[in-house]
């Protein structure tokens, strides 16, 4: 059952309104830092969902583009001064478009494969980019890392500009997903996910729609990488191109429900906030990773299709059960409390005759 018109936009308005107000509540720095990282993963999960959820191409190499975006902003501002602190944010659209263009030939080659083979090809890309980051020392600094000038924001509100930009980026990512779900692009991606050969047979421009999903997805991911690098101030290849980031993105999307609008965001808020909270609580003992895994395992055992699809299915079954169990009125409608019960009429007894 589809929600009545207006409920979706109203839900989004409340969600983003609450997130916009949160920094005004004088939250502790550790809590704002947690929200910044949660928004980062919410954007990346929504971006990955366009390719891995709607198109059915499970990329395991998205963090390669995250790292490219991070190094792009660092290398640019090693040769250009940062005056008011907002210049790196103004560069984000160029980084997104540039990485999308770089990703176009990669996608054209990788998307000649499907399913498991595509996943292997993309994870190979991840390790290729990571190896280049380690070995191109003159460009990336190698294992010694690379730095960008610290953002000149007041320490009392240091996290706020990053938070606001990520909130806008999340709105853009979800807006693109929402638009795709209500357009021919979304229908084409669903057809590709169901059966690519049949989709091509009925006239879907398979290659074009796959490349579009890939480029938009990696462009958004690269912009998050640039924000992360500016926020951190210093990056290393093993962290800028960390396979665990890709694993987290995929887990969040599957946890919340892939090929849905809100699923990746729900998964990101549950898993990333749990991971950040456990990391702060348990410190450097690494025990937080066990708790992080348990959160995911419990939810996946109870809701294997993801949180959002499981809840929607449960609500559908409940509505069907209510309709089936409700007694009928004499006119065929549902009986209400004011409707008197009437005896059921039985068919007249017909004697059996033998011939």
Describe what this molecule looks like in 3D.
- The protein has 355 residues and is an all-alpha fold.
- It is built from 16 helices and 2 strands.
- Helix 3 (62-77) packs across helix 11 and helix 14 (263-282) packs antiparallel against helix 15 (288-302).
- It is globular and about 70 Å long.
- Mean pLDDT is 86; it is low at 1-6 and 332-355.
- It has a domain at 8-242.
- Strands 1-2 form a two-stranded antiparallel sheet.
Key features of this structure:
two-stranded antiparallel ribbon, single chain, disordered C terminus, mainly alpha, 355 residues, globular
Strand content: under 5%
For the CA atoms, what is the radius of gyration? 25 Å
Spatial separation of the terminal alpha carbons? 55 Å
Strand order of the largest sheet: 1-2
**Overall pLDDT confidence:** 86
- Major β-sheet profile: 2 strands, antiparallel
Listing every helix as H and every strand as E from the N terminus to the C terminus, the arrangement reads HHHHHHHEHHHHEHHHHH
What class would the helix/strand composition place it in?
mainly alpha
Share of residues in helices: 55-70%
Tally of strands = 2
Q: What spatial form do the alpha-carbon principal axes imply?
A: globular
Low-confidence stretches: 1-6, 332-355
Counting DSSP H or I runs of 4 or more residues, the number of helices is: 16
């Amino acid at each position: 059952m589809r929600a009545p018109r207006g409920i979706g936009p109203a839900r989004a308005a409340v969600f983003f309104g609450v997130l916009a107000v949160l920094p005004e509540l004088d939250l502790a720095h550790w809590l704002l830092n947690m929200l910044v990282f949660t928004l980062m993963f919410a954007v990346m999960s929504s971006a990955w969902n366009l390719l891995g959820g709607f198109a059915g191409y499970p990329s395991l190499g998205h963090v390669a583009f995250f790292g490219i975006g991070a190094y792009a902003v660092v290398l640019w501002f090693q040769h250009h001064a940062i005056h008011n602190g907002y210049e790196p944010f103004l560069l984000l659209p160029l980084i997104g478009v540039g990485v999308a263009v770089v990703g176009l030939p990669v996608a054209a080659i990788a998307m000649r494969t499907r399913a498991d083979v595509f996943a292997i090809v993309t994870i190979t890309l991840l390790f290729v980019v990571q190896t280049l980051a380690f070995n191109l020392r003159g460009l990336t600094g190698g294992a010694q890392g690379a730095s960008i000038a610290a953002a000149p924001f007041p320490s009392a509100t240091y996290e706020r500009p990053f938070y606001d930009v990520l909130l806008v980026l999340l709105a853009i990512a979800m807006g693109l997903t929402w638009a795709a779900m209500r357009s021919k692009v979304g229908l084409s991606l669903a057809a590709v996910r169901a059966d690519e050969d049949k989709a091509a047979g009925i006239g879907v421009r398979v290659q074009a729609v796959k490349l579009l999903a890939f480029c938009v997805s990696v462009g958004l991911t690269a912009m998050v990488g640039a924000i992360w690098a500016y926020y951190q101030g210093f990056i290393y290849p093993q962290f800028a191109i960390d396979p665990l980031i890709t694993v987290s993105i995929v887990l969040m999307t599957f946890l919340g429900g892939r090929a849905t609008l809100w699923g990746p965001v729900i998964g990101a808020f549950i898993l990333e906030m749990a991971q950040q909270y456990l990391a702060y609580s348990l410190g450097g003992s690494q025990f937080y990773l066990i708790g992080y895994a348990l959160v995911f395992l419990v939810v996946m055992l109870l809701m294997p299709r993801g949180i959002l699809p499981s809840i929607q299915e449960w609500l559908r079954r409940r509505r069907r059960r209510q309709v089936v169990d409700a007694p009928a009125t004499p006119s065929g409608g549902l009986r209400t409390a004011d409707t008197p019960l009437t005896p059921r009429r039985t068919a007249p007894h017909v004697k059996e005759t033998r011939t």
